[in-house]
Amino acid sequence: ENLRMVNPRFTGLDSANQPYTITAELATQRAVGAEVANLELPSGDIMLADGARVWVSADKGVYRHQAHQLELRGHVDLFHDRGYEIHTSMTRVDLNAGSAEGNEPLQGHGPDVELSGQGFRIDNRGARVTLLGPARIKLYGAKTEGSR
What we know:
Blueprint: E1 4-6, E2 9-13, E3 19-23, E4 26-29, E5 36-40, E6 43-47, E7 53-57, E8 60-64, E9 69-80, E10 84-94, E11 99-102, E12 106-110, E13 113-117, E14 119-123, E15 128-132, E16 136-139
Antiparallel strand pairs: 1-4, 2-3, 3-6, 4-5, 5-8, 6-7, 7-9, 8-9, 9-10, 10-11, 10-12, 11-14, 12-13, 13-16, 14-15
């Protein structure tokens, strides 16, 4: 039978030697000896070189340990500790490359922005975020005295 593990914890380093951790309530190995595991209620986080922390959570996932890839489905939430978040229903994360993408509708916000789109790409460990359209971005500027 396939190996099942309650409260698994997977750890690793990406290509920039940044540590990441993936946890779940349950992991089931797809086949005996396989490096692929189905995850129930997975979550993961990575500490970036600039000290920022990014984490994700979802209803279900698939983790490919050797490839350092995580696919998330269901209610997928991505958070950045500077107050930014994206909510969607499917995301693929390449932990080694520091990238993520999704082709499902999304909603997001942060301290100075609201956004929505039909998909997204995050590259270069979060340095570039691309929304797939039609997309909408609403930026909020700093308030000055007398403005509302």
